[in-house]
UniProtKB/TrEMBL annotation:
InterPro entries reported in the protein's UniProt record: Acid_resist_chaperone_HdeD (IPR052712), DUF308_memb (IPR005325)
Keywords: Membrane, Transmembrane, Transmembrane helix
Cell membrane found in the keyword field: no
Superkingdom in the source lineage: Bacteria
Protein species of origin: Diaphorobacter ruginosibacter
Name assigned to this protein: HdeD family acid-resistance protein
Chain ranges passing through the membrane: 24-43, 49-69, 81-99, 105-126, 138-160, 166-185
A Gene Ontology cellular-component term: plasma membrane
Keyword Membrane: yes
Upper lineage: Bacteria, Pseudomonadati, Pseudomonadota, Betaproteobacteria, Burkholderiales
Length: 193
């Protein structure tokens, strides 16, 4: 007896289950790569931070080149001048990130620190202005103070910020990899049944 077809597809649930079951090894491979990256990031977070910055640099290069090509197309959708400026900034950032990823990672952490400081100050100002309208405005002020502290720490020690970020990303990748490997073996059973 054949299983019912998926509405509008002409494909049975059994065919879908078989297809997913046969591709279990792709999920396993993805899980193994994620697991290995997680272990590498936890063992050597500085290299992981530099590697992530390098990858972001490649994406920025590709974005900049595509933006430059798009700026001279018929339907850019944005002012040609702004598009060219954006493309050039993306290309310069990409080149710097690929040429010296660790330095750029530290720069990104420092810029993030500056943003946290500005954001914290703005949050405190806003909390003071609306203190009569809301309850527990001290929580907003505390959030602002914590943002300022985090920003100062990132600006004082950007490499440490890169290390902590890489460790968190590594831990997430490790957990995700284990879950993907577990899921791969569950999906494998679909192809066998």
């Amino acid at each position: 007896m054949d299983t019912p077809q998926q509405p509008g597809t002409g494909v049975t649930a059994r065919q879908i289950r078989d297809t997913v079951g046969r591709s279990w090894w792709l999920i396993l491979l993805f899980g193994v790569f994620s697991l290995l990256f997680g272990i590498m990031a936890l063992v050597n977070p500085l290299a992981a931070g530099a590697g992530l910055t390098w990858a972001i640099g490649l994406l920025a290069l590709a974005e900049g080149i595509a933006g430059l090509i798009g700026a001279f197309g018929k339907n850019a959708g944005v002012s040609r001048g702004w598009m060219i400026l954006y493309a050039v900034i993306s290309i310069v950032f990409g080149l710097l990130a690929v040429a010296n990823p660790l330095s750029m990672a530290a720069s990104i952490a420092a810029v993030t620190g500056a943003w946290f400081i500005v954001s914290g100050v703005m949050r405190i100002i806003w909390a003071i202005r609306v203190r009569k309208e809301i309850d527990n405005e001290w929580m907003l002020i505390l959030g602002g103070v914590l943002g300022i502290v985090l920003g100062v720490l990132l600006m004082m020690a950007p490499i440490a910020g890169v290390l902590v970020g890489a460790i968190w990303i590594g831990a997430g990748a490790l957990i995700y990899g284990v879950l993907q490997i577990w899921a791969a073996f569950k999906v494998r059973k679909l192809g066998a049944s």
